[in-house]
Amino acid sequence: MYSGLKEKRTYKWIVRSVYAAEQIFQGSNLGEKKKEYVLSFLRSKGIKINEEQLNILIEAAVGKINLSKVEG
User: Range of 46's domain?
Assistant: First the structure.
């Protein structure tokens, strides 16, 4: 896994790209499109991450987004 600053930057880009994917792809059953968008974006930033790490960080980002919606 990543360490320190690199991990924080990677997570920041994942959160931002997940927010963007949520705005671009609205509707049900679009999870794979959203995930591919996030992965493509990360690759464009030169971020290499394996599938397991990506899934964990996407879930954390989605949780953060959902929590912010509840908190308003």
Answer: 4-71
